[in-house]
Structures are given as structure tokens and as C-alpha cells.
Amino acid sequence: MSLARDGHLIARGVGVVRGGRTILSDVSLAARPGTLLVLVGPNGAGKSTLLGALAGRLRPNAGGVSLDGMPLAAWEPRALARRRAMLSQRVDLGFAFTAFEVALLGRSPHAPDRVRDEAIATAALRAAHAWELRHRRYTALSGGEQQRVQLARVLAQVWGGGSDGAWLLLDEPEAGLDIAHQHFILRRARACAALGMGVVAVLHDLNLAARYADEVAVMAHGALLRHGPPQEALETGLLSEIYGIPLGRAFGIGAA
User: Fold this and answer.
1) Low-confidence spans in the chain with pLDDT less than 50
2) Is the separation of the CB atoms in 30 and 53 below 8 Å?
3) What domains are defined for the chain?
4) What predicted TM-score, i.e. pTM, was given to this entire model?
5) What is the pLDDT of residue 177?
6) Three-state DSSP state, 155
7) Beta strands in 58-193 (DSSP E)
8) Taking the CB of residue 81, how many other CB atoms lie within 10 A of it?
């Protein structure tokens, strides 16, 4: 796949080594605005590491990542934060913020505007199905409830930025959620993509990837093995090989 430039989030030859162990090896991939790209693969494949590199939170040992043709390292931090937000697997907060205050934290990279910021935090909490939690202390929420509030925070961070090329990066966003909310959060991710945002998500559930992704990148042992539409990328022979179990036609997608 050729790597486009303008408006795209692009990894070129990304390599990451930690503690003498190669976590990513020569990974190149382009994520497009208006698309939900899902990264899948077994544990240790390097999915979350690649997502961290795409977010600019992790500097590769080799290669690099660019947005709009400019290396992430060259972006002014607040400007980059207004363009992309990342939902991590787990966010620990030691302060007794309310859920509404956590959502407001997403507005930190923007010029202060109390009325606008509170309106966006309100809309983000509603979009994340977390409005009813707004007065509750974040530390008293269940793991799934905290995940929904964190989704509101990252939505607030890039709210209204679809036409400007905003990016939402989600690391296992379905973790800790019941089935209904797993589907909800991925419908929300698709809705963000439909508004013009670029969305990259790490998922463990291959059925969710097959159902919601516009594109799937299959990874194993720190390498990118396949990238394309779900019906092409989620080929059962490849998946059976990398997961080490026969998967048959479990995803409603015929073997290529």
C-alpha cells in the first residue's frame, strides 16, 4: 500500500527496541481521515506500542511518524494535542475529580473559554453515555464507568475538529465494558470517522473488528502482516497461524 501524505497519519519504517527486545520492526502504515482503522493481533504483537508511536507518546528507535507530512516530534505539543487524543487502556487519577471535571480536562490544550468548554464537556459526556455520572467522583466509579468518562475526555479534547483533521486513538476501548457498551463505543468511533476524523483502535475481539472497521491491520511479533478491508485482512488461514488455533469462519468472512 502506498503511503499518502496530506491529512494522513503515517508510520514509516518504525522500529522500537526496549530492554534489548525488538517490539516493532520496520512497520509502515498510513491511517486516513474519515476511516476507522483497527489494529489486531495476539498479545505481544506490538499493537499498543504502534499506537503509542502514532500518538507521539513514544519515540521510535528507527523510522518515524508524521502528521500532515510533518514529523510528530516537530509539532508544538499543544497544537498536536488539539489535533489528536489518545484513550489509554487504563488512566489512574489520584484526585477526587467529578466525572464532569475529568471531561473538562480534555479542553486543556485549547484557549480557555469557560462557556464553550463546559458546553463541549457536556456534549462529550452525553456522547459517551456518561452524562448521568457527571456529579460522581471519578475514583468511586467502576472500571467500565471510568472508561466511558475517559472517552468523554478525549472526545472533548478534539471536539469539532473533524474538518481540521482530528485524530482519535483508542487502546482497547472495549476493555471493562459490557457487550452493549462495547458496541456503543465502536459505533461512536464509526460516527467520529463519518464526521471526518481519523480513528485508530487496538482491539482484541476479532468479531468487533470485522463488524466495525473500515480497515484492519494484522500484526504479530512486532511486524505488520496485512493491511486492508476486513474481508481481506481477516483471512482465516493467516489468523489461525498467528493465534495458533483453527479459527474456521468465525467472523462471517470466508477464507481467501
Assistant:
1) 1-2, 4, 162-163, 254-256
2) no
3) 34-42+78-215+222-243 (3.40.50.300)
4) 0.90
5) 82
6) helix
7) 62-67, 70-71, 84-87, 167-171
8) 18
Q: What is the pLDDT of residue 101?
A: 97
CA 35 to each of CA 8, 9, 10, 47, 151: distance values in angstroms, whole numbers, following the listed order:
10, 11, 14, 18, 18
How confident is the model over 141-200, as pLDDT tens digits? 988 898 899 999 999 999 875 446 799 999 998 887 889 989 999 999 999 999 899 999
87 DSSP β-pair partners: 170
Reading phi first (left if > 0) and then psi (alpha if -120 to 50, else beta), residue 162 is in alpha
* CB-CB contact of 170 with 87 (8 Å): yes
Query: Is beta strand 215-220 parallel, antiparallel or unpaired with respect to 223-228?
Result: antiparallel
Q: Is 252 left (phi over 0), alpha (psi -120 to 50) or beta?
A: left
Residue spans of beta strands (DSSP E) within the chain: 9-18, 21-31, 36-40, 62-67, 70-71, 84-87, 167-171, 198-202, 215-220, 223-228
d(CA 145, CA 41): 26
